[in-house]
Specification:
The chain is an alpha+beta fold. It contains four helices and four strands; from the N terminus they run H-E-H-E-E-E-H-H. A hairpin with a 5-residue loop joins strand 2 and strand 3. The longest helix is centred in the last third of the chain and has 20 residues.
Length: 123
């Protein structure tokens, strides 16, 4: 996994997005460990949903997040002292709060998402 050993580079990165799934190295890597490492490097990470919906992973870990399924994880560097990075971090947190505020109004409108939820016993 490229993220391992990239600490000196990550401090210069304001936004990082990666795919999470069950293939290749991901089958052997614990996402919680990756999120913890990224937090130690100054990042806050979110599940990147559709239609502007995102859910915070950092400091909001739930056990079913360890289930491997296809998704994107979007992370923002909250320790970077650049106006663009700080604005992005604030906007992502606002998007997360807006997603929470919608509650059951959030629609999972793709077959892949519905299949993932069914696999997890949530759909």
């Amino acid at each position: 996994l490229v993220l391992k050993g990239a600490n000196s580079t990550l401090r210069h990165v304001q936004y990082l997005e990666f795919e999470y799934n069950w293939k290749g190295l991901w089958s052997k890597i614990n996402l919680k460990d990756v999120i913890t490492d990224l937090k130690e490097s100054g990042f806050v990470c979110y599940w990147a949903g559709t239609n502007g919906h995102i859910w915070r992973i950092t400091d909001c870990w739930l056990p079913h997040y360890s289930t491997h399924f296809w998704s994107n994880v979007a992370c923002v560097n909250v320790q970077m002292n650049r106006p663009q990075a700080l604005a992005l971090a604030e906007n992502m947190e606002i998007m997360f709060q807006a997603t929470l505020d919608k509650g059951s109004e959030v629609v999972y409108d793709t077959p892949e998402t519905a299949a993932n939820l069914a696999f997890l016993g949530k759909g």
